[in-house]
Amino acid sequence: xxxxxxxxxxxxxxQIASYYKRLILLGALEADEKLPSVRTLAIExxxxxxxxxxxxxxxxxxxxxxxxxxxxxxxxxxxxxKKAREQEIVGRIAELLNEAREIGSDPETVIADAKKxxxxxxxxxxxxxxxx
Amino acid sequence: xxxxxxxxxxxxxxQIASYYKRLILLGALEADEKLPSVRTLAIExxxxxxxxxxxxxxxxxxxxxxxxxxxxxxxxxxxxxKKAREQEIVGRIAELLNEAREIGSDPETVIADAKKxxxxxxxxxxxxxxxx
Amino acid sequence: xxxxxxxxxxxxxxQIASYYKRLILLGALEADEKLPSVRTLAIExxxxxxxxxxxxxxxxxxxxxxxxxxxxxxxxxxxxxKKAREQEIVGRIAELLNEAREIGSDPETVIADAKKxxxxxxxxxxxxxxxx
Amino acid sequence: xxxxxxxxxxxxxxQIASYYKRLILLGALEADEKLPSVRTLAIExxxxxxxxxxxxxxxxxxxxxxxxxxxxxxxxxxxxxKKAREQEIVGRIAELLNEAREIGSDPETVIADAKKxxxxxxxxxxxxxxxx
DNA sequence: GTGGTCTAGACCACA
DNA sequence: GTGGTCTAGACCACA
Lengths: 132, 132, 132, 132
Fold this sequence. Notes:
Four copies of one chain form a homotetramer.
Chain A: H1 12-26, H2 38-45, H3 49-61, E1 65-68, E2 72-75, H4 79-102, H5 107-116, H6 123-131
Antiparallel strand pairs in A: 1-2
Chain B binds a DNA duplex through helix 3.
């Protein structure tokens, strides 16, 4: 699988963890779904089993999966995870807006510019723009 | 000085570089102002001169300071640096908003929540927005 | 290996970096090929590991190699690097021709003289130009 | 005078030497003309007298000026200097063209591109192009 | 094993 | 005095 990007400066275990965080938050993996074994994942991802184990440790520590010894790793229910991540995002954006203001940029302008860069994904809206 | 935080996972040279980037972008240091010498900084920051040197290398490479051998390090003009940083902030916020949308959060709500967390500094403006 | 020349006024780390830039641009090292480890290179080049590390930092920063911690340093794809270097060469020659003109030399003569000094490698082509 | 550029990475003594080399090769200073004293130059250039002396040392060593002890520094006759510089330029261009060829660029294309970047300075030619 | 960081201390060019 | 380079050697994160 093309999960690991060697040109990415982040460590491999973190890339793997990020990949699964994303799948879980997006709902691509359901709550209580079992993940493949460490060995299987290592083969699928072409990574060292130690590295995969470290990624799973991170996912467990951050509440994305839970482990049942002897049975495997399972996906945690994501509702609270989503809320937590949303709060992280809110906090991070607030920090960035503060910094922007500190260096003399108007937060509203920054927000407007950021919105322009949002990937299009609301077809109705786009259509209506065309209709005008 | 309390610039270095050993609990911070970032390397010391990067913490020092970040600290000065911030001072420079905020305008706390003026263009062409001379920084303290490497040796002086090392003492002030309780770091090794080599580590300070590495931090200054980073700052030089990224256009925050320029060096005159035998004279010292000087602060670069920050106009273009500020614009570049603003663009970084815009891009980062756009990424975060995209991620929020992916996990099912409304970008507008996220923005509204982030604004609430902005350090208060322009109360009248906020009030007038409500009044409109 | 005879990479380091102590009579050369350039620092050792830069000589090492230049050496590898050349190998990479010439295609002597292929994309994604692994370089020897820092420690191995240090022994081969008779330099200190820190110095080798600094050379690799330069190569990484300038886009010639990428690093996977715990795995090693790898050669970057060189297409864009070659184009960038070609543009550098064009710019440098333009500067030199301007200077030649300023001191009263004819740029065309200078170019013709420079061509005569090109290492011979396509004799037929030169002959045919004369024949035209 | 605006000879020294602190943002230039070259040492100050070299910037001063370059400045005078240029003036001499351009003919702006005539053969056997006397240069101002070290002290005077130091003031005019806002530089340290030691630094000015070092620049003059370089100019003397490379044959651009000669010193009469107790009388001052004088400009050398520039004919041979110009020829030497022209040969340096020819050699450097040849090196660059060789390098271009090594990385797969066509020397003729490189030359053509470099010519396009030459600063315009031959009005008649330009006019004729318009006339065509 | 592999790269990255840091300290300590020496030595050099430059102003 | 000021910055830049280099060696020696230790220690850490990562795979």
